[in-house]
Amino acid sequence: MNVPQSLKKIITHIFILFMIILLIVSFSSSYASLNIDNLAFVVALGIDTGESHKLKVTFQFTNLPSTLEGNASKESQTVFNTVEAPSINTAIQLINAYLGKKINLSHCKLIVFSEEIASQGISEHVYTLMNDSQVRPSSNIIVSKCEAKTYIEESFPSLEELSSQYYEIFAQSDQYTGLVVNSTIRRFF
Fold it and tell me: Is 51 strand, coil or helix?
């Protein structure tokens, strides 16, 4: 069967056009996809007993300075938000609705439980956090004598620029001081 040369050219052009459209569609990102502008990264999580609900959960976020602005300082701004909810998952859903951004726990370096809630038992809360795929097993757990919210708000890094680095390094000070126990979720579990 002999195909005319002009028909071969048309088929080739249609094939090339189809491939270009396919590449453009497959490599273009959706506007609704999750990117760094749509996520709120939690650095520390504090869990206390609530007044009207079972838990009072405090989230610490860090707003990193924009490198595009000429007058941006090197310091990052720390933001605290607290919600009361019957569970940790419900608290995350509430804060998601409140902030307008999706909470991401993949950078959470510290989980603080108040002594009051620890005396009631924290295994249920640890299981909830362990089952969350975003929470890393290397996140540190601390039981504080004061409220977890107070502990997080009063902890300031003196030699580190970022609070996430501070939370990661100070738990490792057990190697040379003996005053802090290196307790990660993995070890606690």
Answer: coil
Q: Are strands 55-63 and 39-49 parallel, antiparallel or unpaired?
A: antiparallel
Is residue 85 assigned to a domain? yes
Report d(CA 167, CA 146) in Å as an integer: 18
Residue 14: per-residue pLDDT: 93
Distance CA 143, CA 151 (A): 10
Any idea what the Cα angle at residue 134 is, between residues 129 and 181, rounded to 5°? 55
Domain that holds residue 142: 36-66+76-188
- 106, HSE (Cβ side, Cα atoms, 13 Å): 7
Q: Is the dihedral of CA 98, 83, 85, 126 positive or negative?
A: positive
Domain count, the chain: 1
Domain assignment present for residue 28? The answer is: no
Q: Tens of pLDDT along 135-164?
A: 887 788 888 888 989 988 887 766 666 666
CATH number where 57 lies? 3.30.420
Q: List, for residues 44-63, the tens digit of each pLDDT value.
A: 899 999 888 789 999 988 77
